[in-house]
Design a protein that fits this description.
Blueprint lengths: L1 H15 L19 H17 L8 H4 L3 E3 L15 H23 L8 H26 L20 H18 L19 H18 L5 H11 L11 E3 L10 H8 L5 E3 L1 H9 L5 H4 E2 L22 E2 L1 H4 L5 E4 L1 H13 L8 H15 L4 H8 L13 H12 L4 H11 L22 H6 L1 H11 L14
Antiparallel strand pairs: 1-3, 2-6, 4-5
């Protein structure tokens, strides 16, 4: 009893020293506020992760463009994106993990301490550029989306905006961010900017390259605006591979390339090279074959059948470069930009040079990026089935095919180009659930929780189906 009395007195003494019981819930070690630059870094990391991932619950574009196919689970190569609710995951990451962080970053940046007004202005513009980049992906994936009413915690059921109107606004926003950038001043610090290490001049080139990409997407529906945008941006966009927007992963977890997590750490053998890609690379004696892929267990480069079950040991699979723990990921690069310039000339845009020169530059840069040499590129570009003058009389076919090859391991970008240029023509998989998918359906959560606005949006685009073409996809 005496011991119990002593304990009770001690407890009362401790309680008496505390002003309020709620004081026990105070975090004394955790940060009370998130620094704005940390939000920017986190958003860019999340964006790079989702675009790079090979997780079948998140990113299946490599399967859709037939760069890869599967061994066991055949839903996604056959255009079944519903069983795993893949659109839901893509939508949530873009809105919650990328755009929400970028929005909060922009809100906090003006109050940053110890940063000059000029640097803050650059930081705000760079954050805005990444917002435009991310919104353009959402529009290019779904069509009409919540935009003007989105990211408002007080509006749980946002209306959808017309995709074309959103896209036009994004181009206007991008112009404003370009105008706001001052390359003579710093942006984020080196350790905060995981793409360009603080170089505002490089972000300016990136913004102009993004402007080219976005303008070319609407070239078939708004030629005059596309032409004006491309011509204005080309001279200030990427001029070599040194300008590539590259996210640099590290050789230790958790900052590693997500493909390593998906395929190496997990020891899974779900993915192999598609016969569509392997057959094309073999037919062209493409020097990137051995850089892109590792051979099967017998040392042969053979691709699996799209949409069928395949034995892992019998087929080529991702190379050691692709599955490396620190393999970098590209958000936008010189190769892509040079292909756009080649196309721009074919469309009559004034960007300098010839279509053949830009086409050759793109292919050469791709070969060298993957570890090939100038000699490899010279030999490849002399092939009649590769050379610009002889590969095909249809510029969309020769540019589209070579761009599809060069965009290996960049599934979303490859999917956009296949939809936009209609080349290469991809044969259906063995058991397709639809014709070729040209969009994702809206997430299940939108259908159940925001049904009124979902129903209106679905009707506006012609139905919530995977083979409905988006506003820019007219041919």
């Amino acid at each position: 009893m005496k011991k119990l009395l002593i304990f009770s007195i001690s407890a009362l003494s401790l309680t008496a020293c505390t002003k309020s019981i709620y004081d026990y819930n105070e975090q004394t070690k955790a940060a009370s506020a998130v620094p704005a630059p940390a939000l920017f870094s986190n958003a860019v990391r999340n964006l790079s992760d989702v675009l790079t991932s090979s997780n079948v619950n998140t990113n299946v574009y490599r399967l859709v463009v037939q760069h890869w196919t599967t061994t066991t689970y055949t839903d996604e190569p056959n255009y079944d994106f519903f069983t795993r609710n893949i659109p839901q995951r893509w939508w949530q990451i873009m809105y919650k993990d990328v755009l929400a962080d970028l929005k909060e970053c922009k809100r906090l940046l003006p109050t940053s301490v110890g940063v000059t007004a000029a640097v803050k202005s650059n930081q705000i513009a760079i954050t805005g550029i990444m917002e435009v980049y991310t919104w353009s992906i959402l529009v290019g994936t779904f069509g009409d989306i919540p935009y003007t009413k989105a990211l408002d915690i007080n509006n749980l059921f946002p209306e959808y905006d017309n995709a074309k109107t959103v896209y036009e606004n994004l181009l206007t926003r991008l112009d404003a961010e370009i105008a706001a950038l001052n390359p003579a001043e710093k942006g984020f610090e080196t350790n905060q900017d995981l793409v360009y290490g603080g170089s505002t001049a490089q972000w300016l080139k990136f913004a102009n390259a993004l402007k080219i990409r976005m303008a070319m997407l609407i070239a078939d529906v708004d030629g005059p605006r596309a032409k004006a945008a491309v011509e204005a941006a080309s001279a200030n966009a990427f001029s070599s591979a040194a300008d590539n927007a590259q996210f640099k992963y590290q050789s230790a977890t958790p900052n590693n390339n997500p493909i390593w997590t998906d395929l190496v750490q997990s020891k899974r053998q779900d993915f192999i090279a598609s016969a569509t890609l392997v057959d094309k690379l073999n037919a062209l004696s493409d020097p990137r074959l051995k850089q892109y892929l590792a051979p099967n267990d017998n040392g042969k480069y053979i691709g699996g059948i799209n949409g069928s079950t395949n034995t892992y040991s019998s087929y080529a699979r991702a190379s050691s470069k692709v599955i490396a723990i620190d393999a970098p990921s590209l958000l936008l690069d010189y190769v892509e930009t040079e292909f756009y310039r080649a196309e721009a000339i074919e469309r009559g845009y004034a960007v300098g040079g010839t279509a053949a020169e830009h086409y050759n530059n793109a292919i050469r840069a791709s070969i060298k990026y993957w570890g090939g040499t100038d000699a490899d590129a010279d030999t490849y570009l002399l092939r009649p089935d590769v050379a610009y003058l002889t590969a095909s009389p249809n510029w969309k076919e020769k540019i589209g095919t070579q761009k599809w090859i060069a965009l290996y391991n960049r599934g979303y970008e490859a999917w956009t180009e296949v939809r936009r240029l209609d080349f290469p023509v991809l044969a259906p998989p063995t058991s397709p659930k639809s014709t070729y998918p040209t969009r994702y359906t809206y997430p299940t959560n939108e259908q159940t929780l925001n049904n009124k606005n979902y129903t209106k949006a679905a009707a506006a685009i012609g139905g919530d189906k995977v083979d409905v073409k988006l506003f820019w996809d007219k041919f």
